[in-house]
């Protein structure tokens, strides 16, 4: 079981194992906001299994510019949907091919399915008569939310609110 960790300001900070969350609670660094599953049992303690914890002290998160694009980042930004046909995507494509001067930037990379990637090859969208279904751009968030928030656990939903809309 994984546990959602909320910063002292109630914004999602990370996702950790329930064991790590229990240690934070036992050390007095966090409080349990939601429980899930069977309790954690030790010879001297019976404790509810935390699903969501709240840190007592605010953790300052470094706000950085988006990092260089990666295959994983592009697929996550586009929600693994092909930018050309809308089917499930497993690869990344350069909108303006590298052979035609295109760069490997957030604005020139889109998630793409295999068949579209093969058909497109090193052609431009104008040559094929294709249109992009999305406008590729750098992620709006400077810090990625944990990947588990893409499909959050049911117990986490009441605590996500605006963070889930931003993802």
In the predicted model, the low-confidence regions spanning at least 5 consecutive residues are: none
- Biggest sheet, strands in spatial order? 2-1-6-3
Give the assembly state of these chains.
single chain
Structure summary, number of beta strands: 8
> N- to C-terminal separation?
22 Å
Discrete helix count = 6
What characterizes the major β-sheet?
4 strands, mixed
Helix content: 10-25%
Which range does the strand content fall in? 15-25%
Secondary-structure class: alpha+beta
Question: What is the H-and-E element order?
Answer: EEHEEEEHEEHHHH
Tell me, briefly, the overall form. elongated
On the 0 to 100 scale, the average pLDDT is: 86
As for the number of domains, it is 2
Please compute the radius of gyration using only Cα atoms.
21 Å
Keywords: Endonuclease, Hydrolase, Nuclease
InterPro entries: HNH_5, HNH_nuc, NA-targeting_endonuclease
Pfam family, one: HNH_5
Protein name: HNH endonuclease
